[in-house]
Write a structure and sequence with these properties.
The chain is α+β, with helices and mostly antiparallel strands. It has 14 helices and 27 strands. It binds zinc ion.
Length: about 575
């Protein structure tokens, strides 16, 4: 950090303090990348040369642009047309890169760029990309765990580089991201991806390889080989062009490995040597999940792409329809869950993470329910919920500011837009029914989703229920979790020898819910759903054929801050 400050002071002298004070790293976004990459896996080397287009995203003219690449890469030149432009190199500590630092170029552009104006720069940079988990180990993450998380590298047997957020192998422009500072890195990445939405990236790759020739994949799609020649008896040069891809919220990922391919309905699986059997098991699981996913989320736009990771403990990673996962570790249960998730991404698209990711996790719960019953789905959601109860812990501090920042429509926290959103979709499904929710999903158009309330309106068109309170408590605000308990229950014998039970359910939390209440009696059980708003009570009556014994609120489908108070024993009723 210190060297960064020193360099900045140096810049202040060069340009005058006013320039320095207004150094805005996020002033420009990059709307197009046209890059030629030289990859030499044996040397771990990456060389890049090409054109990038910068757009001024601010309201004022800008003359200084900041470009950042991984600290293991070096800037070689930056030009506008034929003219070399002046730029200052400096290291910039930021956890957006696996090395924990960036090589920054502070570029003086030849002229002011007007708001929304663009400029093309010819850039060249090169260096090595080695396995590096510095950003994690320096904050105390155990080395093994850190390396299983930051597994990117260019290596002879296997090359995988994920984009912004992992390895900055193409230029970005971001403010500092700090892993030890809460949501900082997610906030920085979220801003960057929003600015990059609609940008395009076009790659030409020259790969120096040792036999046999590996496959080159970008975003899970095979890059077309243009020329492939043997340069010696054991070495070759592959020249490949990758499909131009508009960047979404994804992290553009380059893979070079000797993959085999197996394809089944809706999924392409690329596996490493000796993993044929697990790959076909995965393909079978995907096939078994595909009807369910299509029934809920519609026909696929493209195939799901799964690619193998060589390190068996590597953390899986997903980007759009691509999933990178160690196939050696997968069993048919985990493969089915992963397939249900990835297939959902091929059918359903949304720019809102709580919808896009929430639904893909919801699909996993639906898959388990189909395979093993509702309880298996609830158990699965309970695993996710343990993370949620920590993050949603009732706090003594006022939540007002956080309510909006951490709402599902705004959050950058994965626990919230994945785990909490999954529970929200499950609750919505329990409240409006499968048929209505399927119609809602069929009516969803990502291009029309311009307002956070769009989904609520689609639901209102299919269900007569007023769910404003639910969206207020769960989607538009983060009001924590409900805490449900039976506050009282009285049973009275009727003239027909049945029992009339009066139950009052209390919600001590700040989020309302429609909760299933299960009543057990000697000869069986009954369940009734009851809506209990935040900080409120609701009373209902139910007739049971035998003396009621116990009541349980919440079958596990509602995330709660305290589930220790959910069972209520009933005193034997007075005759
Ligand atoms: Zn996903």
């Amino acid at each position: 950090m210190k060297s960064g400050i020193k360099a900045l002071c140096f810049l202040c002298v060069l340009w005058g303090a006013s320039v320095c004070l207004s150094l805005d790293r996020e002033a420009f976004s990059i709307t197009n990348y046209d890059l030629n990459l030289q990859v030499e896996p044996e040397q771990h080397r990456l060389g890049a040369r090409g054109k990038i287009t910068l757009r001024n995203d601010t309201d004022t003219p800008q003359k200084i642009a900041v470009l950042q690449i991984s600290s293991s890469l070096d800037w070689r030149s930056i030009k506008v047309g034929d003219k070399v432009v002046q730029f200052v190199r400096q290291p910039y500590t930021s956890d957006i890169d696996h090395t924990g630092s960036l090589s920054e170029a502070i570029v003086t552009l030849p002229q002011d760029i007007a708001p929304k104006g663009t400029i093309d720069l010819d850039v060249a940079y090169e260096g090595v990309i080695l396995l590096d988990a510095t950003r994690l180990t320096r904050i105390g993450t155990p080395e093994d765990f850190a390396k299983n998380s930051d597994w990117d590298r260019i290596d002879e047997d296997f090359t995988a580089v994920r984009g912004a957020g992992y390895v900055t192998w193409y230029p970005v422009a971001t403010e500092v991201a700090n892993l030890s500072d809460g949501d900082s890195i997610f906030g920085v990445l979220d801003r960057w991806r929003k600015r990059e939405t609609g940008s395009t990236i076009h790659l030409k790759i020259d790969l120096h390889f040792a036999d046999p020739r590996p496959a080159v994949l970008f975003g899970g799609i095979n890059c077309d080989p243009i020329v492939s020649e043997q340069t010696s008896s054991v070495n070759g040069l592959l020249n490949a062009e990758c499909k131009t891809e508009p960047l979404r919220r994804d992290s553009p990922t380059l893979l070079i490995a000797r993959y085999g391919l197996t394809e089944k309905r809706g999924v392409e699986i690329r596996f490493l040597p000796k993993h044929d059997a697990t790959a076909s098991r995965f393909a079978d699981a995907a096939e078994s999940a595909s009807s369910l996913v299509q029934d809920w989320f519609g026909p696929p736009r493209e195939s799901a792409k799964v690619a193998d990771l060589p390190d068996t403990d590597a953390a899986p990673f997903e980007s759009g329809v691509l999933l990178l996962t160690p196939l050696a570790n997968s069993n048919s249960n985990s493969a089915g869950l992963a397939a249900a998730h990835q297939l959902t991404h091929t059918s359903f698209l949304s720019a809102r993470p709580w919808i896009e990711e929430g639904l893909a996790h919801f699909a996993q719960a639906l898959y388990l329910e189909q395979q093993k019953g509702r309880q298996a789905a609830l158990d699965y959601m309970a695993l996710h919920r343990s993370a949620l109860t920590v993050i949603e812990e009732p706090s003594t501090a006022p939540r007002s500011g956080d309510e909006t920042i951490h709402s599902l429509v705004n959050t950058t926290s994965e626990e919230l837009y994945r785990s909490k959103a999954m529970c929200v979709w499950w609750m919505l499904r329990d409240m409006i029914g499968d048929a209505s929710l399927k119609k809602v999903l069929a009516a969803y158009k990502p291009e029309d989703d311009k307002d956070p309330s769009y989904m609520q309106h689609l639901i209102a068109a299919q269900s007569p229920r007023d769910l404003q309170w639910f969206f207020d408590d769960w989607v538009y605000h983060d009001r924590g979790l409900p805490d449900l308990k039976v506050s009282s229950a009285y049973a009275a014998k009727t003239s027909t020898n049945s029992y009339m039970l009066t139950i009052t359910v209390d919600n001590l939390g700040s989020a309302g819910a429609e909760v299933p209440v299960n009543i057990k009696f000697a000869t069986g059980e009954m369940t009734k759903r009851i809506e209990v708003r935040a900080k409120s009570k609701a009373t209902f009556r139910i007739e049971t054929p035998a003396a009621p014994q116990s009541i349980q609120v919440n079958d596990g489908s509602i995330p709660e801050s305290d589930t220790g108070n959910n069972v209520f024993k009933i005193e034997p009723p007075k005759e």
